[in-house]
Amino acid sequence: MHMFAGTRRDFDAQHYLEEKMKQAGHRLLMISVDLAEDPDWDFANPITFSKLMGLAEEGLIDIFFGGPPCSTVARSRFVQIPAGPRPLRFRWAIWGRPDLRAHERARVEEANTLWLNFLAMAECVAVRGGGYLWEHPADPGVSPYPSIWATEEMCNFESRVNGRRVHLHQCPFGGLAPKLTTLSGNLDGMEVVDGVRCPGVSEHHQHGISIGRCPEGGFYTRRLQTYPPKLCEALADMLLATLLRFAVNQSGPTGALLLDGQESAPRITSWSTLASSRPAGVALLNEATARGFSVRIHNKQRCLSALMILGRCIVINFLTSLLKAWVE
Fold it and tell me: Per the confidence metrics, is the pTM higher than 0.85?
């Protein structure tokens, strides 16, 4: 799953990965999603996030990757531009400066939600033996510049999932500007791009305008939101190498086996339904227990308990009154 993928286009990461998987003789089920393409893919929406987390907990996502929005930490905000946007975060206020205006606070809080949701999804996939990749601007390493890479949340997450970081410039891959970028992940082959740097401006290597306001009224920084094709191919190579390893070892969240010494997190089904989505809600108690939820049975509801004994399903219907008396 490629989150924050932008508009589907020729020579994006999915294009390259589909071609490479086809050449390798494997079938691929991949989805590239972005709110700009479909409003139903609002990753900040609790319902959307819950459904995606359900897929991850059930072990149905092998790799989760993407580049969460970075406009609220862009270094260009610290460049004095007439009528330009001001910094919304500082290194000492990574989750938002204290004097945010209403519209600024809404944008920062949305970005915070997307960051944390992405972390949760990535960890959910990784602890089940899957792969993850987070792309984001590199940490400047000095004040006042903020960076998600300097937060305890990110560092602790990487420690839990054995994440690695690599750093690269995007212009050698065809980007308009150097844009020092960090990739955090556990994919195979990440180190191939580590240390790739701008060769310097020359007649063979030029940079485009990436800071300031363009004649149409927007900002040139929007040009940097789309990965250049060669970087997309490099990402596809990492994804391919990881998926081929999964296929050979029968590992990964959708695989049949665990690697030696690997203790994967349990797979939790997501078959429960809310009453608002159909005439009657269905709560599977093992799912509720695994997620730490409680299920209350009212006097007009029934509970169905199924026990598997010697391969045969013995179904016992308990009257609500008896169950309620037992619980109490």
Answer: no
- CA nearest neighbour of 58 among 114, 123, 124: 124
Helices (H), the chain: 13-23, 46-57, 102-126, 152-161, 229-249, 285-290, 320-327
Q: Reduced to 3 states, what is the DSSP secondary structure of residue 236?
A: helix
3-state secondary structure of 323: helix
CB-CB neighbours of 226 under 10 Å: 15
Write the CB contacts of 98 (distance below 8 Å, at least 6 apart in sequence).
none
Q: Which pair of structure tokens corresponds to residue 184?
A: 């955090």
Give the Cβ contact number of residue 76 at 10 Å.
17
Contact 108, 73 (CB under 8 A): no
- Provide Rg for the chain, Cα atoms: 23
How confident is the model over 54-106, as pLDDT tens digits? Answer: 999 999 999 999 999 999 999 889 988 777 889 999 999 999 999 999 999 99
Torsion, Cα 252 138 135 46, to 10 degrees, reads 100
- Which of these, 147, 122, 145, lies nearest to 134 by C-alpha position? 122
Tell me how far the alpha carbon of residue 166 is from its chain's centroid: 18
What are 164's strand-pairing partners? 185
Q: Where in the chain is the domain with CATH 3.40.50?
A: 2-249
**Euclidean distance between CA atoms 16 and 10, whole angstroms:** 9
Q: In the 8-state DSSP scheme, what is residue 298? A: P
Q: So what's the architecture of 2-249 in CATH?
A: 3-Layer(aba) Sandwich (3.40)
One-character DSSP codes across 8-34: --TTSHHHHHHHHHHHTT------EE-
**Hey, what amino acid is at 230?**
K
The residue among 64, 94, 61, 90 whose CA lies nearest residue 77 is 90
